[in-house]
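Feature request, filed as a ticket because there's no other form

It would be nice if the structure record came with a short human-readable summary line next to the tokens. Right now we just get the raw output. Example of a typical job, pasted below so the devs can see what we mean:
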Amino acid sequence: MVYLKVKKSEDDLFLFEAKHDQLMEEVIRECALVHNQRVRLKELIHHVKDLVQYGPMRPPEKQGLEDDMSSLQIEDVTDEDLTSKGKEVAVTDPSARRVGVRKY
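Raw output as currently delivered:
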């Protein structure tokens, strides 16, 4: 067995295990596959966190446009209201790609 340390940065690294008699082409292909899957997973995690924080995406024709938050019919919410279930809270999305509504 051979262990390869694949390192993109100090925070982004992993160990890849290969057989000593395996062709280099196979090792590179499998290592690239693992790396690409890790990148996809990181992106998925990032977008799921955005979904939780800012709500679902706006339609493509409305992304990036600032709209009137009163049209969403969201009432002002205090900290005490956050503990109850079913409340909607307006959260401004910095990228203006999401609707900015979070349910509690």
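Something like this underneath would help us a lot:
The radius of gyration is 22 Å.
DSSP finds one helix and four strands in the chain.
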